[in-house]
Write a structure and sequence with these properties.
Layout lengths: L14 E8 L2 E7 L6 H10 L6 E5 L12 E8 L5 E8 L6 H21 L1 H5 L6 H100 L8
Organism: Amphora coffeiformis
Protein name: V-SNARE coiled-coil homology domain-containing protein
Keywords: Coiled coil, Membrane, Protein transport, Transmembrane, Transmembrane helix, Transport
């Protein structure tokens, strides 16, 4: 296990290890164990699962001393009663979903179909017989899982940023509308104040005129009264 010379340390967050086997013979594998033996243990656990047709899953028993809880998955393809093809992988569920790992395995199955059908090295070769030729391809496909995952994350972040920008623009437009409304209200208030001032001046002027007329009448009456008091009547004494 873990005999590949190809470094995939950058894949720790996605597919950590994968292999293709014919029955119990591992023809090619890729991966590194930077998890204190957890990758190797999980790989061994998934390979020991019964070779029933279809998907098999493996989850190590949880340990309080194990920081990273890895998982294993594999697919068995029964070509015949004598040949069972095994496609297995170990992954970190904290950073990649099972469906992504299954998609990775399905792609590997499609890529190797021609080799498995026609290439003698694949059909009868010994342990790691396909390592020199196919390990780089296996690593490349493992990298794609990481790359696509990062692209999906970046795309999600861009969508979130885009939504935030749209929300900000909407708020700005709403604020501009509110400012326009306030400006319009201010203009109306100024006009109302001006009209009120004009009406006030008119009312004040009218009141002044009325007061002036009233003052003239009152003044005349007082003058007449004063005349009666001060000036002796000329007719009454006649």
């Amino acid at each position: 296990m873990m005999s590949s010379d190809y470094s995939v340390s950058e894949l720790q967050e996605k597919v950590l290890w994968s292999c293709i086997a014919r029955n119990d013979v591992i023809l090619v594998e890729a991966g590194e164990d930077n998890f204190d033996g957890a990758v190797t243990a999980t790989a061994q656990g998934i390979l020991q699962k019964k070779g029933t047709a279809g998907w098999e899953y493996y989850k190590p028993s949880r340990s309080p001393f194990r920081k990273n809880q890895l998982k294993g998955v594999k697919f068995h393809f029964h070509e015949s009663a004598k040949i069972i093809w095994v496609f297995a992988a170990v992954y970190n569920p904290q950073y990649v979903q099972l469906v992504e790992v299954q998609s990775f395995i399905e792609k590997i199955m499609g890529i190797t179909e021609m080799y498995r059908d026609e290439d003698p090295t694949w059909r009868t070769g010994p342990k790691l017989a396909c390592q020199p030729t196919f390990a780089p391809i296996l690593i490349q496909r493992m990298e794609e899982v990481t790359y696509l995952g990062k692209m999906a994350m970046i795309s999600q972040q861009l969508d979130t940023s885009k939504q935030i920008m749209q929300d900000n623009i909407t708020r700005i437009l709403e604020n501009e509308e509110k400012i326009d409304d306030l400006a319009e209200r201010g203009t109306r208030l100024e006009q109302m104040a001006s009209d009120f001032k004009k009406r006030t001046k008119g009312v004040r002027r009218k009141m002044m005129i009325q007061n002036a007329k009233h003052g003239a009448l009152v003044g005349g009456a007082i003058t007449a009264g004063v005349a009666v008091v001060v000036v002796p009547p000329l007719v009454a004494l006649l």
